[in-house]
Amino acid sequence: MFETIVRFFKDGGIFMVPIGIVLVVGAAIAIERYVYLSIAKLSNRADFNKLIMLIGRKDYLNALKQAKQSKTAMASIVEAGLSRLLNRQPRDQIEYAMEEGLMEVLPRVEKRTQYLATLANIATLLGLLGTIIGLIDAFTAVANADPAEKANLLSQSISLAMNTTAFGLMTAIPLLLVHAILQTKTNEIVDSFETAGIKIMNLISEKPAQAPVAKAAPERT
C-alpha cells in the first residue's frame, strides 16, 4: 500500500508537490476553522443564555458588565446595544449599534473559510496543468520512439500524466465538502446573532407589568 502511494506520487511528476502543499494548507485551515466555529457556537450560546436572563429581569447594568467581561461575538453585539440603552438612546439607535457590532464580529467568524474553495480550484487546475504538461512530454517522446513501441509508450505516458489530475481531484473534492460544512456552521452562527438581536430588542421594548389596582369596597348606606 505504502509503495503504491509512493509510486503514485513519483510517477505524477513535479506537479504533485504543489498539489500536496495545497492539500496540507487546506487541511490545516479546515481543522482550525472547525474547532473555532464549534467553540464559538457553544460559547455564544452560553453567553446568550446568561445575558437574556439578566435583560429579561431589566438588570441592564449587570448584563453590560457580563458582556464586557466576555470576549465572545455575542457579548460584543449585546454590549453595543446595552451601552446605547443605558445612555437613554431611542430604539433605532440601539438597533444600529447592534447591527454595527454584528458587522464588526462577522469577519472574525467568516475569515479563512472562503480560502478552502479557492484552494480546491487551485488543486484542480494544478492537476489539469500537470496532465497537459505530461501529455506534451509524452507526445514529444513518442514522436522519436520506435513505431512498434509507440502505442505501448503512449498509453503508459498518458496513464502517468493522469496521476496529477487524479490527485488534484482527490484534493479538491474533500476541500469543497469541508467548505460546505464550515459555511453551514458559519451561517448558523450568523443567524443566531440576528435571532438574539430580535429577542433582546423585544425584551427591552417590553414594559414591566403593572400590579392590578384593588377595587374600592362599596360604601354602606
From TrEMBL:
Its main location: membrane. Residues 70-194 form the MotA/TolQ/ExbB proton channel domain. Keywords: Cell membrane, Membrane, Protein transport, Transmembrane, Transmembrane helix, Transport. It comes from the Bacteria. One of its GO terms (biological process) is protein import. It is found in: Cell membrane; Membrane. GO terms for cellular component: plasma membrane. It is a multi-pass membrane protein. The keyword S-adenosyl-L-methionine does not apply. InterPro entries: ExbB/TolQ_transport (IPR050790), MotA_ExbB_proton_chnl (IPR002898). Pfam families: MotA_ExbB (PF01618). Belongs to the exbB/tolQ family. This is Biopolymer transport protein. It comes from Hahella chejuensis (strain KCTC 2396). The lineage of its organism: Bacteria, Pseudomonadati, Pseudomonadota, Gammaproteobacteria, Oceanospirillales.
